Each structure stands twice: as C-alpha cells, then as structure tokens.
Amino acid sequence: MLSLRQGVVYVVRASLDAAWPLARPEQSLLTEPELHGVGRLRFPAHRRHAARSRAYLRSLLGEIRREDPQKVPIATGPTGKPYCRDGPAFNVSHSGGHLLIALSRTGRLGVDIEIMNELPEMDGVMASHFSSGERSRILQHPPGQRLKAFYRCWTRKEALVKALGGGLTLPLHQFSVDVDARKGNVLLAMDLPGTTLQAWRILPLEAPDGLAAALAHDTPETAVVELDWQPFGSPGRNRQAPV
Amino acid sequence: MNRDELRAVILEELSCIAPDIDSDTLDDQARLRDEYDLDSMDALNLLAALHKRVGVNIPEADYARMHSVSQLLDYLEPRVAR
Q: What is the CATH number of the domain that holds B29?
C-alpha cells in the first residue's frame, strides 16, 4: 500500500511496453470516457501507452485513496490539466514507452519526460521559447551535445508549465533554468506574472539513456522519492534525494 | 499560396515531425493531440517549421486555437502572403 507522507514528492516510474504487472487488466481500470478517449488515438502503440498510463495512475490513486481505482474522481481543469478535487496532487508524463507519475499530498506538480528525437526546428523553438541565457548556454555546447542540452532545458521548462497548468500559451521565455546542472533546484529566474522564484523548484530526474526528465513543484517538501514500479509488480526500489 | 498549397505544406511538415501519420488518410478535423498523440514539443516544432516555410509567426496566445490541420489552415490562410 502506497502511503504519501506530508512534505514528500514521489515520482513513480513504469515501462509501458513491459508485461502488465497487475492482476486486473488495464482496460478494466479505466472509465468509459477514458476508454473512448484512448479509442480515438489512431495508432495501436499510442492507444496502449495512453491506456496503461491512465491505468497505472488510477491504480496508484486507488491505493492511496483506498478506493476502487476506476471510481477515483479525476476531473479536468480549465486548461486541460487532470486533478483529484480532494487530492492527492499528481501529474503524468510518458514518452518512448517510459512513464513518470509525480504524486504529493498537497501542492502543484508537473513532470515531463521526453525521448530525445532529432528536432528539425530546434533553433526556431529556442529562438521563440527559450530565454537568451538558456539559448546561449545551449549554443556553448559542441554541436553533437546541443540536442541533449536542448532537451534538458525543455523538460525542465515543460515540467513547470505543466505544474502551472497554463499549457503552451504561457510565455516560456519569461523564466530561466540551468541547462546543465544534474541535481538540485535548476530554476534560475522567474518573471511569469502571479508567481515567484521562491515558490517553485525544478529538479532534474534520472532517465533512461536517450531520454530527459524533470519535475517541478511548489510543495514545501523535504525530499523527493523516486520509485520504480518494475520489475517488482508494485512500487519497490527507491532512491531518496534530500533537496 | 492558396489553401490547397498551404495544406500540402502543413502535411509535409507534419510528416517530418510525426512520420507515423499517413497524410493521404489524415482527417483535417482530427485533433492532433487527441488522435495522433502529438505532444507539446511536436506542436512547437510544427509551428516553428510553418513559420519558416510560410513566414507567419504564431504568437503563444493563439496556440490554443490550433488543434487540427483545419484550424491551422483557417489561421494561416488569411495571413500568408499571396
């Protein structure tokens, strides 16, 4: 039974392409509207990943809330961010078959994982959406390292955007992250209206080779705990990182 | 550039970003995130590519209006130099 401690942010990892680890089939954990949404996806891999992402989330929320996972009331905010009205806070990201679910008892959370595919428009995206400091730091890397630096920057920024729930309409260049740090708070500057630098932390997360990942939260926490769902069938091995 | 030419440009750039998408069978009304699993980075890449190809800069405030090829066409068509 997963129990969330106050002041701790949990990040649960799972492989979406590994054998389904729970006795209950993933489809049976989803609601009718969720099954309908999954069914709208045109490609089988997208449908599998979407269904399993939501099934893992519901399974975790059901354990934490001690209720039937399918009955956990997940609502959607005005900008499309899912949430549970009476907690816990959560956020989900998946890419390349890797899933991250961030959870905490309170606060706002955003998590992002991205497979580092080649980006034909990396320069254009940087010019429009990264701060001048972020751009110049990425361009200081040798050409062969810039894509990784770009994705480190992007996942850190996207994690905060997801935590704030504003989507891409937020002016991404109005806050800056440290592109290169591998641990600790990487948020350097914050000019987004309605919030402060001190309110937020953005933390790099461990990710498999070829992926980048980050977490943003405004929980006055003492630790971030990272848990691997696989291969134990339930959250098991953990790494605790005081911050 | 007329609407058909613009559509061809959008599909060409979309196929670079999401090679799984078959442009011959793509439904212009389909929401790209909901039906083709395009994520935020895919969306920014597509908009940056279209900026380069057709010269229209799409401000962030307008992103929420562009979920499908059809909506992209409606937005870009009156703004593209003829």
A: 1.10.1200.10
Look up the pTM and report it. Answer: 0.89
Residue matched to tokens 């934490």: A64
Q: How far is A221 from chain B (nearest CA, A)?
A: 28
Q: Which of residues 129-168 of A touch B (CB under 8 A)?
A: 129, 154, 158, 161, 167-168
Measured in whole angstroms, how far is the alpha carbon of residue B30 from the centre of its chain?
12
- Strands A223-228 and A238-242 come out as antiparallel
Domains defined for chain A, CATH in brackets: 1-9+16-103 (3.90.470.20), 108-218 (3.90.470.20)
pLDDT, mean of each 10-residue run, chain A (243 residues): 85 92 91 90 89 95 94 89 92 94 94 92 91 97 96 96 85 95 95 92 95 93 77 44 43
Q: What is this model's ipTM?
A: 0.77
